[in-house]
Design brief:
Length: 106
């Protein structure tokens, strides 16, 4: 039960950061780049789904939870590039995925 709470806390924090920064970027892009079509413009909405699902899944299936969190880190990199909020998300989600799998790796 404790692992699920910690996993959900990590997932919810990552979701808040991803949604906040994604909405900020959407607002900032409304000017000159509004006419351009970005195929991954709303890709940041996938990060909260992967992060919360991975955090919720920790207690039942550790491998799937680590896979979902690592996928969230990859989507954060694709959606936000190498900005500071993206690096925070990448380190948080990737580190959580590694910590979940650490007992199996040792």
């Amino acid at each position: 039960m404790r692992r699920r709470r910690v996993g959900l806390a990590v997932g919810i924090f990552a979701a808040v950061v991803a949604i906040g920064y994604g909405l900020y970027l959407l607002g900032a892009r409304q000017g000159a780049e509004a006419a351009e079509t970005d195929p991954f413009r709303f890709g940041f909405l996938l990060i909260p789904v992967l992060a919360v699902a991975g955090g919720w899944m920790v207690e039942w299936n550790e491998a799937l939870a680590a896979l979902l969190l690592a996928a969230g880190a990859v989507v954060a990199l694709m959606a936000f590039g190498l900005s500071l909020p993206a690096l925070i998300l990448i380190v948080l989600l990737g580190g959580a995925a590694l910590l979940i799998m650490l007992p199996d790796l040792l």
